[in-house]
Write a structure and sequence with these properties.
Layout (H helix, E strand, L loop, with lengths): L2 H4 L5 H16 L10 E11 H6 L6 E3 L2 H13 L6 E7 L3 E6 L2 E14 L4 E15 L5 E10 L13
Parallel strand pairs: 1-7
Antiparallel strand pairs: 1-2, 3-5, 4-5, 5-6, 6-7
Length: 163
């Protein structure tokens, strides 16, 4: 089955469910499951609105495979030292955009609140997910590419957990 044909089943409801489960996974600290939302050969980048608008490729976080995403989680669990924190995602409605043979393009606004070990709660990041979604060979809707575009260029250096 071609990617274009598979994309016919990618509707707003499917994109909303994928995003809801994605956010739930991160917010509930099930980070080992997070790479499973992506295709094997995926692209995940976190960048700023300014970089995105100018077409600059620089990213705060960059991974070009599910294996790199898994390595990131392993590093978070075993190697990185950062203050204990957690996120709560608030997601807007996904806007389904162009449908191409490489996947369905989608844009979803987000707001992420960070809760620190002390209980302090602050707005951590706002922005948009620019996604290319596909139905993978196993019939599951997955993210082939996610550009996390943060509205502000002032990104906290504690960007440890994926957005």
């Amino acid at each position: 089955m071609s990617a274009a044909l598979n994309n016919a089943v990618i509707d707003t409801q499917a994109a909303m469910q994928l995003n809801a489960l994605y956010a739930r996974c991160i917010d509930n600290d099930h980070l080992e499951d997070w790479p499973g939302f992506f295709t094997e050969d995926c692209l995940y980048r976190v960048t700023t609105e300014d970089n995105h608008r100018r077409g600059l490729s620089g990213a705060l976080i960059y991974a070009d495979s599910r294996a790199m995403l898994s390595d990131r989680v392993l590093s978070l669990r075993k190697a990185n030292v950062y203050e204990r924190q957690r996120y709560r995602h608030l997601l807007g409605m996904p806007a389904l955009l162009e449908d191409t043979p490489q996947g369905r393009h989608c844009e979803t606004p987000f707001l992420v609140v960070r809760i620190m070990r002390t209980g302090e709660t602050t707005v951590f990041a706002t922005g948009r997910y620019f996604d290319r979604l596909i139905v993978d060979t196993d019939g599951q809707l997955r993210i082939a590419q996610r550009d996390v575009v943060c509205d502000s260029h002032a990104i906290d250096t504690l960007l440890a957990i994926p957005l």
